[in-house]
Amino acid sequence: MRHNEGEIEEFLKVAEKIGVDRKNIISPCVRTPQQAKDFLPKSDIYWIYERERFEREGCLSPRKIIQKLLSLALLFDHHTGERQCCAMLP
After folding, report:
1. Structural domain of residue 78, as residue ranges?
2. CB 46 within 8 A of CB 5
3. What would the pLDDT profile of 19-28 be if each residue is shown by its tens digit?
4. How far, in Å, CA of 60 to CA of 58, rounded?
């Protein structure tokens, strides 16, 4: 989120210093254009949405690679082997 963006470098340094096995920076997910304006980071690196389209049209459209990953992840429940009804399709 935008308010934590300045803490990423320190997080990575501390994680390295204490010897963690894995570090993850998770891109924030928002539900409305207003949340996007308020919370999405300034750096494109952490956006999962098409920024140009958002700035041009106010539309929260996942990047193409993310759309494919979301579709695959949500279509199939690996625990039950069942298809999910709430899949996000491109």
Report:
1. 63-90
2. yes
3. 988 888 878 8
4. 7
Mean pLDDT of the chain: 75
As for how many domains the chain has, the answer is 2
Same domain, 55 and 73: no
> CB–CB of 60/36 below 8 Å?
yes
In this structure, which amino acid lies at residue 51? Answer: R
What is the C-alpha separation between 71 and 29, in angstroms, rounded? 16
Sole residue written with tokens 């996942």: 62
Q: Does residue 76 sit in helix, strand or coil?
A: strand
Tell me, yes or no, whether 6 and 24 share the same domain. yes
- Residue 60, amino acid: L
The answer on 16 and 34 residing in a single domain is yes
DSSP state of 79: T
